[in-house]
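Model the whole thing, not chain by chain.
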Amino acid sequence: MSEFLQFLFSGITVGSVYALVALGFILIFNASGVVNFAQGEFVMLGGMITFFAHDAGLPMAAAAALAVLATCIIGVALYKFAIEPARGASVVALIIITIGASIFLRGLAQVVFDKQIHRFPAISGDAPIAVGGASILPQSLWIVGGALAVFVALYLFFARTLAGKAVLATANNRLAAQLVGIGTNNMMTLSFALSAAIGALGGILVTPLTMTSYDVGLTLALKGFAGAILGGMGSPFGALVGGLLVGLIEAMTAGYISSEYKDAVAFIVILLVLFVMPNGLFGRSPLERV
Amino acid sequence: MMRGLSPSSLTLLTLLVLMVVAPALFPSSYYYRVGALIFINGLAATGLVILVGYAGQVSLGHAGFSGVGAYACALGPVHLGLPPVLCVVLGAALSALLAWGVGRPILRLKAHYLAVATLGFGILIYMAINNEGWLTGGPDGMSVKALGLKGLLRDFGIKVKASELWYWISGGVLLLGAFIALNLRNSPAGRALRSLHDSEVAASTIGIDVARMKVMAFVISAVYASVAGSLVAMMNRFVTPDVAGFLHSIELLTMTVLGGASSVLGATVGATILTALPQVLTVFEDFENLSLGLIMMLVMIFLRQGLVPTLARRWRRRAT
């Protein structure tokens, strides 16, 4: 039982990170219809920039804030310089652009920072808390709390604020949104900035546990995407649940079946979900216009 | 003279002439090796022309099939006692079977979902190769038995360097692959494929079995990728799981799109650029990711049709 509890804790912890990536994914996907394969690089940048800023002498909180801000700017730059000029391009072209951006950012981190693995201290120390025979690190609680906070904030943003509704309207029908006076371009920029910030936050929270290096982004992006697809590629709630589920399945597989194939789980989940219920757990089936 | 040739013959002739003329400019036999690599990548990219350019489907996992082809050549002679040439066929057959099996459910998906499903499929093959160390040697890779052609030629009194031999073998296979792809383009099946690129609904209303055509394109392109994997394994006499890796899938797709997704000549042009570039940039090894990513973005933003179609259009405009 304590074994199961331990796997459960670790599943929820990684699942929360995947959920953060998934939330970032659907934010951009909802606003622009672009699947941003560079989403994982935001997580990497969050961790790497924090480490190097802290290393250069900034206090931890300032380093983290700088990392979020810098990643935000990179997210906006990605939209302005790579996505916006390619408006109207085919899906294949957009996929190649965002994968190109992902490889580019990885290459940039490799050149600007280094190829080492880095870690910085956890927020509330490394003393594990014992719960029912299993132990949980305080940092795990921070990660889960962070994911929940981002989810609630996003939910409120979409449901309660004018800007959030404008983003939804842009996602729904760009032309109609323009006609009612929404600056759709600003809304896209906003979603890329928010999405990058969420990714960076995830990176900052998870680095004390899993460490970071220039090449951690891709795996995170794929697993977050698995979560987003599982959740139906639409609602923040779906992304949260989907991300958590992918993390849980992964932890259980590693614990009970094979730790070598734990990374395969996300992809098996992707394939099964797409084959059996292409709209995910919470998605509605889209109508194709001819 | 040029005007009398059909575009297909012109493409083949261009490839052939470049293939024959290029060695005259090679300062060392190392360049034969780079040339062979270009042809092998060009072959895999030509397969993707059929899938991406003709049928309009995307795949981020075709290196998985290259992995199947490569490891068929590595494992076949050791475990089944098969001659290497037969292993190429075996690998291709396995890849075709695999593509056929997963093709039907996967190709029902569209756009991003298809991209991610193929990506997941490719990564699963990579993981299987990487983790089953008892069979594949794991991340360290394994050696591959020689094709034996060099020895055979020596018996006939012909002496060639391995790199030159592979230059001509892979060149020949590329020409054959290009020939088949060009023929397919103008066949009824090829026209059906290209029609579903524009609109699947329209294609199905004129009686085209959309699902069957997509699976056909997927299977054919898988065979191309598999043969390319076999060739590179036999040329290097060594194979590592990276041949099936995600980055290789991306490179193959980028080669295809860089040259012009629906252009057979473009596939080889794209392969040339992306294969030669790392050789040129070896001094700046750290910048390889940076430049690959930048190329991918710039081409897709500024040359959406790809290099060859863009240049061809400019050429034609000037001619008229």
